[in-house]
Amino acid sequence: MIDKGLNRDLMELIGYMITSARGLVDEPKSYGPFRLIEGVSRLCGTLAKEQGTDRMFLEELQRTIDEGKFVLMTDPQAFEAMLDRAVVLYTRKLKQLEG
Amino acid sequence: MERRSVRLFTAQEIPRSELEQVLEAGIWAPCAGNLQEWVFVCVTRPEMIGKMKVVSPGVFWKPQAIIVACVDTTKAGEAFGARNAERWSIFDCAMAAQNMMLRAYDLGIGSCAIGSFNALAVRELLELPQNVRAELLLLLGRYDQLPPPPPRKTEVIHWERFEGPGDTR
To answer: What ipTM did this prediction achieve?
Structure first.
């Protein structure tokens, strides 16, 4: 059962993703990575409200993304470095998963 | 030259009288043939601003108001013809938007022009008629601080004639 709050957050994320997909057809290529990682940040924020043991991981991942995402236009290398940090953070968590 | 694009706004409300001054500045912008084919929809209700944000990937924080700068495509088409209607009406919207952003700055209101939004979704939300097309969102809100100015490319300015490498393709 999805509660009302989570349902609204996910509905809004769907809206962001659909309109991002449509917009990216016409927008600069560099916007693509930004829209994707922003979607991840928003998803982390939504899931962090629900997940018990994974909350710290989700919050850390969201924080890592949010701290580095807005430099895309002014410092592309720093943006790439943020993406790499997010990948490493995520993969370390993936390694810990059983099964 | 002090105006900056502001994306992070405070929760402080903007009085309607100030929004009216901003809109007034928009309709005094220059426009092709004095056609005034623009249409401005000012959105202030928080729930609608929230829904606009959902369908506008370029909006990250909630502003206090959004002015949707639109074009009456029927009026533009009749005056400029199909070939030039889009070109002139977009110029006109852009000039109106700049006027509004400068007036907003005078009033201590931050602004940011946003092109990353879904025009079809905005049409649905605002019940725009088929001949009114949203071109630009103008986010408005109070701010704590202006972002630092990014560097400008001064080499784009030429005097009397073009000087430089010429065709850079």
So the answer is: 0.80
